[in-house]
Amino acid sequence: MSAQTxxxxxxxxxxxxxxxxxxxxxxxxxxxxxxxxxPQAFEGLRLAGRKPWRLSANLAVxxxxxxxxxxxxxxxxxxxxxxxxxxxxxxxxxGITEFKMSDVRQGxxxxxxPEQGATLPGMTVVCGDSHTSTHGAFGALxxxxxxxxxxxxxxxxxxxxxKSRTLLVxxxxxxxxxxxxxxxxxxxIGKIGTAGGNGYAIEFAGAAIxxxxxxxxxxxxxxxxxxxxxxxMVAVDDTTIDYVKGRPFAPSGAMWEQAVASWRTLHSDEDAxxxxxxxxxxxxxxxxxxxxxxxxxxxxxxxxxxxxxREPDPVKRGGMERALAYxxxxxxxxxxxxxxxKVFIGSCTNSRIEDLRAAxxxxxxxxxxxxVKLALVVPGSGLVKKQAEAEGLDQIFIAAGFxxxxxxxxxxxxxxxxxxxxxxxxASTSNRNFEGRQGPGGRTHLVSxxxxxxxxxxxxxxxxxxx
Amino acid sequence: xxxxxxxxxxxxxLDRANVDTDAIIPKQFxxxxxxxxxxxxxxxxxxxxxxxxxxxxxxxxxxxxDFVLNQPRYQGxxxxxxxxxxxxxxxxxxxxxxxxxxxxxxxxxxSFADIFFNNCFKNGILPIVLDAGSVDQLFSEVAAQPxxxxxxxxxxxxxxxxxxxxxxxxxxxxxxxxxxxxxxxIGLTLQHADKxxxxxxxxxxxxxxxxx
Lengths: 467, 212
Ligand code: SF4
Hints:
The complex is a heterodimer.
Chain A: H1 6-12, E1 15-18, E2 24-27, E3 30-33, H2 39-48, E4 58-61, H3 78-94, E5 97-99, H4 109-116, E6 124-127, E7 141-144, H5 147-156, E8 158-161, E9 165-172, H6 181-192, E10 200-205, H7 207-210, H8 214-222, E11 231-234, H9 238-244, H10 253-263, E12 276-281, E13 288-290, E14 298-300, H11 314-327, E15 342-345, H12 353-363, E16 374-377, H13 382-390, H14 393-399, E17 403-404, E18 425-428, E19 443-446, H15 449-458
Parallel strand pairs in A: 3-4, 3-6, 4-5, 6-7, 9-10, 9-12, 10-11, 15-16, 15-18, 16-17, 18-19
Antiparallel strand pairs in A: 1-2, 2-8, 13-14
Chain B: E1 6-14, H1 21-24, H2 44-47, E2 79-82, H3 94-102, E3 106-109, H4 114-122, E4 126-129, H5 132-144, E5 149-153, E6 158-160, E7 166-168, H6 173-180, H7 185-190, H8 193-206
Parallel strand pairs in B: 1-2, 2-3, 3-4
Antiparallel strand pairs in B: 1-5, 5-6, 6-7
The complex binds iron/sulfur cluster.
C-alpha cells in the first residue's frame, strides 16, 4: 500500500459507502451534543418517528448558556433556561448520557470529551460546534457540523462527506520561555491567514508540536478552524497514550493493550504526500497578541499596531482601517502600551488545568491592576475546577483579585451573563476576536493564559518573558 | 418526511413579489427550540393586527381581515400561489418549517430564492416554477372561482386546473426521487442501513474499544 497521511488513515478506516462522485458515508464513533445546536435535531427525530442509531456513541452536556455564578439558583434568562431544559428533556427521553448542570463532570463540551476519555485516538468525532477540531489533538478526525447534520448523525451514526485536501504545518525547533501552543496557533494563522486552511485538514507536526502536552495540542487543534480548516490533528505518541490511560471512557485491561497497538499506527507514513506544506521555526515565535477583529490580525508582544498606510492592497487596507476604528486603536501604538479593562481566562481553547497552572504562576504573589474592572478565571469543567482547588490555584487567583467561577463557555461568546460592555477592551484566552463576540461593542485581544494573567496584573499588555 | 405523489388541494393566492423569509416567519420566532409549531405565526405581521411574540396565545389575537389567508374561502389551503423571488433572505429552515406546519405542501411561483428552494425539498414541500403568464392565469382563475383547486402530479410533473388545462413543470430528478419516496437526507442514508450495520460488525472485531 502506498504511503498515507494520518488524515487518509482516519478517513479510510471510517468509510461505509462511497458514491461514484466521491461523496462518502463516513461512520462517526463519537457524537458530542450541547444545548444550542441540538433541539431541532431531536425534534426532527421525533417528528419522523426515528430513534438514535447507537445511543452509546452520544454524550451531551450544557455549556454555552450555563451561568458561572450562583448556579444553584438556576438560569435567570428564560431563553437560555429553555435551551438547557430542552437538552435535559431530550437526553432523558432518548436515553442519551448527559452531564447535567449540577454534575461535577459538567463543562465545556470540548474539555469534557477528552477529560472523560470519550475522545480516543483513531475516532471520528463530531459535534454541532465549530471548535470540535480540538479533539484532533488525539490523532482523531474531528470537526464541527450543523443542526441538520446533528440529526443525521443521531439517526444514522454517519455523515455524508467529501474528502478534504491535506495541509502539513510543520513547526520545528524548541519554543522559547513564555511561548505556548496558543502562540503557535496565532503565529500559524498570522502566517497563512484565516482562509489559509480552507478545504484542508491540517496535520500539525515537527519537534515543537511533539514537545507539547495534550493540553497544548488541544489548544492548537482548537484554533485550526480559525485558520479555515474544519479539522486539525496531531499524530499519536506516548504523550497521547499517557493522557488517555485510566480515563473513565477509555478501554482497560487486555482491550487497552489492543487499542494501544492500533493507536501506534496513527501517524503519517514517512513518504506520505501532503497537498500543501507550511513550515515555521518554533524558536522564532514570540508571545502573540491580536490587534484587530480577526485572528489573523496578530503581532508579537514587542511589536506595534500595524499601520494601514503601509498596506499596498486597498481591500486589506480598508479592512485594517475598519478593525482599528472598531478596536479604538491608533496605528503604530506599541502593543505593550495598550491598557485592558477586563481579562478572561477560559474557553475551550485555554481552560484546562495546565492553562490555569500557567496563569497562576504569573499571578502568584501579585495583584490585578486598579484599572482592570474584572479579571475572570473560568475553568473548563467541574473536574478541572476541583483539581485546581486541590492544588490551591483558586486561592492564588482570589488573593490576586481574580474571580473564580463555575465552568462553562462564559465570556467566550457572552451567551450567559458574562460579557463586555461597548468599548471595553479585554485580554482573552478564547479563540475569536470578531466584532461583538464578547458583547456588543466589546474589543477582544486574543492571548495565551500567561499573557492574559500578566495583562491583568500590569493593567496593560506586557511581555510575559520579562515579567 | 412524508411522501409526495399526487396532491389535489385548495389554492390560496398571495399576490406579492419578493416575499422574504422574515415576512414568512418573523425573526422573534427563530429563538424557538422547535421546528414545528410555526404555523400560527406564518406571515405573522400581515396576518394579525397586533405585534406577535413567541409564547402568545395566537387564537386570541386580532386577525387582519384584509390578509388573504384570513378569508374563509382559503381555509385549509395546501397550495400557495405567489409572485417572483419567493423566499429571499436568510438561509434558516424556519421558513419552510412554517409553511409546512401551516399546511402548505406546494408553492407555485415564477421564481424562488435559491436556498429557500432547496430547503423546501429537504422538508417535503414541492416548489414549482411556472412562467409568469401561467402564474397570472392561476391568479385570475383563483380569484374568479371560490373553492378553486389544482391537481399536482409529481410523477407526471403536471399541474392541472379544474378546467382541464395542464401545465408541465421541471424538477431535478434526484429531488423528485426523494420526494416521491419521502426520503430526506436521513432517509437516503438509511437505505444503506445494512452497510452501516455490516461496517459496525466489522469494526467491533477490529476495534472493540470503540463500542464500549
Ligand atoms: S468556549 Fe467558546 S468557542 Fe468553545 S465551545 Fe464554548 S462558545 Fe464555542
